[in-house]
Structures are given as structure tokens and as C-alpha cells.
Amino acid sequence: MISLYVGSTSGYSGKSLVSMGIGLKMKRDGFKVGYFKPVGILPIKVENILTDKDAWFIYRVFELKDHLAEVCPVVLTQELTFKSYLKDVKGLIRKIEKSFNQLSQDKDIMVVGGSGSIYSWGALGISGLKVIKRLNLKALIVVKYEGEFGVDYILQAKKDLGNNFIGVIFNKVTHEFRQSIDDYIVPFLKRKGIDVMGILPHDSLVGSITVEELNEMLSGKVLCCHDRLNNLIERFLIGAMQVDRASEYFKMTKNNAVIVGGDRADIQLSAIESGTECLVLTGELYPSELIISRAEQKNIPIIVVRDDTYTIAKKVEKLSTRLRLRDKTKVARGTELVINNVNFSLLYKKLGI
Amino acid sequence: MLDNFFNPQTIAVIGASRTSGKVGHDILKNLIQYGYQGAIYPINPEAPEILGLKAYPSILDVPGQIGLAVIAVPPKSVLEVVVQCGNKGIDSAVIITAGFKESGLEGTKLEDELVRKAKESGVRFIGPNCLGIIDSHSRINASFAKGMPEKGNIGFFSQSGALGIAVLDLALSEGIGLSKFVSMGNKADISDEEIMLALSEDDNTKVILGYIEGIRDGKKFVEIASQVSKKKPLIILKSGITSSGIKAASSHTGALAGREISFDAAFKQSGVIRAQTVGELFNYALAFANQPLPQGPNVAIITNSGGPGILAADACDKLGLQLVPLHKDIVDKLRSFLPPYASFYNPVDILGDATAERYEKALYTVVQDDKVNAILVLLTPTAVVDVEGTAKVIANISHIIDKPVLTSFMGKKSVEAGTKILMKYNVPNYSYPEHAVSSLNTMFKYNLWIKKHEEVYPTFNNAREKVRDTFECLNNEKREHLRESEVYEVLDAYGFLQPKSLLARTPEEAVAAAKGIGYPVVMKILSPHVIHKSDIGGVRMNINSKKEVENAFFDITTRVRHVVPNAHINGVMIQEMISGGKEVIIGITKDAQFGHMVMFGLGGIYVEVLKDVSFRIVPLSKDDAHEMIRETKVFPLLRGVRGEAEADIEAIENSLLILSQMALDFPQIIEAEINPLLVKKRGEGVVAIDARFIIGGD
To answer: B532–A306: do the CB atoms touch at under 8 Å?
Structure first.
């Protein structure tokens, strides 16, 4: 049995996407692939079994039959957080080890998904680093490339992981940063003995969010077009300009959502006419019937939120860094990205397959 | 008060001009033309004589004293002129010149300087940037408006010069007399309040009209307007700001308040009659200026056709005026001279062939009914009706009785001769019966206002000391929100009943707490990062078992961790679930102009859509609390529908008064809201289920 830990140096770097892509490719290549998430941070109960949302999703994508409770043995609920900080909960790492051994019994390859960075939850004695060492896993580090400073973290990870470290995958690389990676980073890492196993370009579809998710994250109220909540939003625009400029601005970007003050009927109409995916009205100001009926005609959902435009913009900014893979089209595209951009022969070689 | 403005012995026009069409020329001309009796001194450094009057190079060259200076020189010279006025001992000036605050930053600086200089020099002034002033009794027309209104008893002040001109023109063409007209301009020195006071003390003014766009000091306005309105009807047209602006409202109370609402509350509490349109301003003014106030809500209608009679009756019904059934003796008397197919009941239909004599007899009979407080006479111009004759008999009767008589001679051309007679003899006539009815209604409401007993302002003195430390601690920590425990403490100090609640940090603690409190319970997230608990699914109601408590604990905390990443979670509040009763919302908000206001409205999630809320400015009187509940649509629900028990309305009133006290005790409260406030059956009180406080400033 071979195991691959997919970790990172920071949260929200795309570990789940990479785990899923690699796992599916291995399945296609005829291996019996399992999935394990030692620490879950998105608690959910499935038929009264406590697990993690992302783990549950990948469990289904991989079509696994294992006992769900073992897939993610430690889930950080409020209860566990409270108890482990204030009362010292023991035996978490043993629990992880037990579940892993259980799951890996009948698998060729175990894909192990990290949470946060490889250092996260060290305080509770269950950091990725500790799990990797304890279970002796091969570790791949996914890095969301946002500039040269990221390299230092990679070097540190290599140092800390030692022999368990097998390489790096860069994720969400914009075309502007691609040159920097090709010209400096890859050669540099090579000199330091670090293999770059793949460079995944930024993809607006993979980075998109559904209206429903958006509404949930913004604690809004949907006013119309409840059947269009799966519209995918790739970009956000703020409607704060003169109305005569608005429609050109809205038309320049595809699949956008427009954030606008609830009392700016002129901008709202302009956004509806330009065919936005969703209107986000701020300040808890409800639009007139005219706006709602026009939106209904054009099948554009309207969300009313309490916060002001600036606060919503800030939330949306944060949102794009913590998107989850939930949607089928997104999964298909994400997997394709991984398969096309990861050097599997190198990966297999490093894993000893 | 402001005597030298309206009754000066002499007037100087500084900036008087020889050139027709210039403001300095037109003002001088108006003063001469409309018969001002005192001496007029044109001031112009270059002209020896203007419009036949000897001109002086400077105000300082004028021999003898000057009562009023009218200033129409370029903006830069105004300051110097004002100083000269001071030196000359002039204490009153009207500054016509524009180019001050209304023109930008430079103008604003100039205006500030003007205010300072005028104060130093002991000169009070109206304006700048105004049209001037008119007094039809002392024959002063120190304005550049065209024409001079007839003598009358309506005093009018206006922030807008343009509207002023339009109103003057309208008054002139309709033959409506004005006592005084004041164009307020930028109101840099003399304020609306001072003019209101001056008009209230003016013997020639019976009704005060005002047009305002904004006021400077809300509290002062309410104080003065209340005084004035007790003496004379004060009718104000306030142009609104309809857009509420993009405002991040952090509570329902905040979202629902707005400048319009604060003005509305201010007007109600100070007895100001609010006109929504220029038309209403005139309609009301005519009624108040010419007729006595009705002593009750009972109206009798006399008409020569059915349709308009019904329209008027509908309008009465809508506004709360009563079409009182006439006394049997009156009906019998009517029956004795009206044709048998006439209607002898209210509305009295004296038929299309009614003559002036029949109108006279009917009117004379109806006014004798003691229960009738006001009479509305309608006339449609049928072929046989004698419009002028009818107008005369109505005018005659109106003069000898002490009840208001309003008329609606409908149509225009064929009733014109009649309406002129009515106007001449002080019987207000309206083209549409609804307008007559709404004017009558306004008079009735005003009568209630002036008859109102002295307002009672209850105080609650024992709470402030108990929670002063809490609020101070908040100031020191620069926090904006009261913590849950602090909210509990504050509400408790002010005597609000609250559900029993316990904090649980783990599911085990939650189960124990629920057991201690007793099922069913409510569970709510407790986190400093979460203000609107239910927005993010942080509230669960009606939890009935251990299992449900455990699940709810998991769900609530998970949701919050998901939606507000990194939120600190104190735990989950387990609360006694109180059922039965009706949910309302009460709150405090702070208006930039009027200060704190107390809100009342329908509770629940639809509050912001239905906007069924009422506001009053702090401090609240007992009457305010009483009225604000009754003016919402929730009121009938609270009284109980279809056999429901009546809710404890008195307890709500009391709660509103307590909030008023709270706002007085702690002016640093920006917003406070108890939502929902659960109202139990009469005599059983209210329970504050949830509340939040936002603190800042002061």
C-alpha cells in the first residue's frame, strides 16, 4: 500500500481539488484508491455520523464504501475545540492512526487530505506534519502561488518533512505569475532538489461560486428566481458608477454578480438588462416591484443583504479564497485541470509505483 | 420682537440702483410704490438721486436714525456694509445679496465671516440670498417680488425664494390676503424659530404658513413650534428627501428611521400641521384664516346633488370625521319646507332645482342642531341654481354663527361669480369636496391639539445609577455593542421581564441547562462576532428533548463556524421559551437633527417590508406613547380580533416611556432595540425576548 498526503503551507490552496484530481486519475489507471482526512474543519452529520463536508464530498466522488466515521476521525466541532483547549483531550493522534490503518487495509493507494497548513492544529497534537511522520506518508505540497515569498515556506516544509517530502504543485497560477514561476521558481527549486510536479493555471470556473452558496455566506435573503440558485458566479462587480457607464461596465465581464446599494434602482435595472447572474442588494433595502418583476422575466436572482457595499465587497474578497468544490461542472473542470497539468509519471516514480 | 423688520420708522436701501431690472432698483421701487409711509434712503456712492429720492453715498452719511437696512450690494461688500450698519446704530437688516453658502466653499467662508461681523456689530439679519420681506399692514414691500399681496391674516415664511414668488403670485390672483411674507434665504442669522415666534406674537397674523427644506436645530424647532402652535395654527410644507441613502443599518430600528420619519414625528409632537403639497398649504390656510375651529368631529353636509354629497361623506369617513345623524326636530323642520323627494338626513340633499332661498333655509335649519360642529355646503352648477344668490346667503349665515362653514362650489366658469363672493366674505371655497373635508379635518385635529391637557412626562429614576458603570465600561473599552450579559443587566435594571437563560459551552452543559430551565427551550448562539443571530441560522426555537438540544448545539455552532470563519463562540444560550402573546418591536434610534426617537412597530421578520412603525422624539409624554401605538396597523391586532383577548397595551406604553427614559439617561445610545417584545394578555405584562444596544459618540 502506498499513501500520498496532500498538504500545503497555507489554507485554501486547493488541496481538495488536487486530492480529487490525483485520486480519480489513479482510479482510472486501475488502482484501488482510498481517501482519508485526519482532521476535518467543516463538521457535518450524515445519517447521524459526524464527519467533514469536504471528506464526505470526496468520499462520494471516489465512490467509497468504507465506514464513514473512519474517513475523518477527528472533526473540530465547537465541543471538541472547547474541550481540547480548556480540558486537554488525549488520544486524538491514536484515533487517527487507528482509522487510517483500518481504511488502508484493502487499498492500493491511500490519498490523505490535509486541513489548513501542515502546521495547523499542532496545538492539539494533530498537525499534518505529525500525522505524516507518525503514519510515514509521502507528502506533496500544494502552493497557491501569490509571489516569491511563497518559496521560503516550501523550503521550510522540505526541511521539516525530510524524506517524506516528494514535491510541489503550484495552483491558481495567473498568467501574469506563470512567467515568474517558469523563469525563476522552477529552476531555483530544481537547484535545491525540489521537484515541481505540476503547475495548475487559475481557472475562473473552478473559482466560481453558486448563487446559493453566495447567499449563505452573505446571510442574505433571496427575493426571486429560486430556481436559478445554481447560477455560477465567476466575478463580482460593484455598481457605484454613473448609470450611463454602468451597462458597458457590466457587459465587459461574463458571469458576474453585481453588488449595489438597495436604493440604486437605476444601476439595478442596468445590471439586469446587461444579463448579470445575480444582483446583491446591500443595506437591507428592498427593491421596488418593478425591479423584481424585471429580474423574474430575465431569470436573475436577487439577494438582499444587511451589510453595506464595502463590507460585502470585503466578504466576497475573502470568499474567493475559501471556495469549496461542490458543483459537478466545477469538479469535472477541476479534475481535468489536474490531469492535464500534473506530471503523473514523475509522481508515480516518486511514489514508487 | 423683530420690530424693526416689520415696523421701522425709516428704511435704507443699500445698493439702490438707477437701472430698472436691477434688484437694488426693484426693491426701492416696491417700497415707494406700495405706500411705505416712513422715510426711505437710497444708498449709492455714485447717484445723487434715485426714483425721485435723495440718495446718499454711504449709510453713515444719512442724517438721523435708520430702522431697517435692506442690503443688495455685491457679496464682497456685504461685510463692510454690515459693519457700517452697526456703526450707524442699525440693529436690523435684510440681506438680499446671493453668493454665500449656496455658492460653494468660498461663499461658505464669507457667510461665516458675515455672521461673526454682524454679531460684533449688533446687527440681526434675515438672509442672505433671499427675496426680501413684505408686511401688508405696515405697507412695507422690501422685496423684489412682483406685486403686493392684499391685506390679510396669513403670515408666510419660506426657505425657497422661488416658491415664495409663486405663492405670492397665487395669493394675488386668488385674492388671498397675507399679513407678512418673509423670504428666509440661507437663514444664517435669523432662524425659522425666531420668525415663527415673531409671527405668533403679531396681532395681524392669525395663521402661520411655512415652507422649509431643512432645519438647523431639531430640539429647538420642536420647543418653539410647540409654543407657537398652541397660540396659532402653524402649517408647514416640508420638502422631503425621499431616498434613504445607502446606509448600513445595523438594526431594524435604524433601517426604518429616516429624515422624513423624524420630521413627521417632530411635527406631530409639536402640533405642526403638515401640508404635503402647495395646494394643501393654501387649502388649510384658507380654512384657518377665515373660519372658527369646529368643536367636534360632527359634520353636516348640504348639497344640491347626490354624487358630490357621497364623495364628501366618503372623505369624512376616511379621515375620521362623523356624518352625525340630525336631530328629529331638525329633520322635521327640513321636511316642512323641502320637496318630499329631498333627502332630510345627513347628507341633506336639497335637489338640483334648489334655489338660494332653499339653501338658506336648509343651512339655517341644520346649523341649529347642537350636535353639528361644522357644515359643508356643496353646489353643482345646475341650470336653475342661482350661484351668486346662494353664495350671498351662505356668507350671511356664516357671519352670524360660531361654527365653521366651508363650501365646495364645483366647477369653474359657471361658479366663478359665486366663489368670488364667498372669498370676499371669508367663506373658504374649494373646487373639490375632498379638499374641503381634509381642511375641515385639519381644523378639527388642531382644535384637539390646543385643547389638549398639559402633557405628562413620566420619569423612571431608579435605573440609571444601577447600570451607569456598565455604560462607562463600554466607553472605556471603545466597544460599540453591549454584550449579552450587559443587555440582560440593563433591561433588568429598567424593569423589563426577560426569559430565564443560561450559557452552555458544551452539549452536556446545554442539556443540563435545558433541564434546569424546563422544556421547551430556545437556543441562540452567543458570539461577539455575531450580531444578527437569526440571519445566520444561529437561533433554534421550540427545542423539546435532550437529543434535540444536542443536535441544535451542533447545528448552531457549526453554522456559525462555517459562515463567520474564526468567529469566537462563547457558547449557546439556553433560554426559556415563552409562548402565547403577540410580538412587537420597540426601539431607540438617534436622529442627527432631533436626537433620540423611540420606535414602536409590528414585530417579526416582516417588519422592514411592511414598515408598520411609528416614531416619537424623546422625551415621550404619556400621550405620545398612547398615540404611537394607535397609529399603527398593529393596533387592532393588539386589541384582539375575533374574540381574542386584548393584549397588554398599557404595558407596551410603559415600555416605550421607559425607553425614552433610557435614552435620556444614556445619550450615548445610538440604537437600541427590543425585538421581539412579547406582549401578553391585558394585565400580564410584556417580556423582552431579545435585545441589542449600539453605543457610540457623546
So the answer is: yes
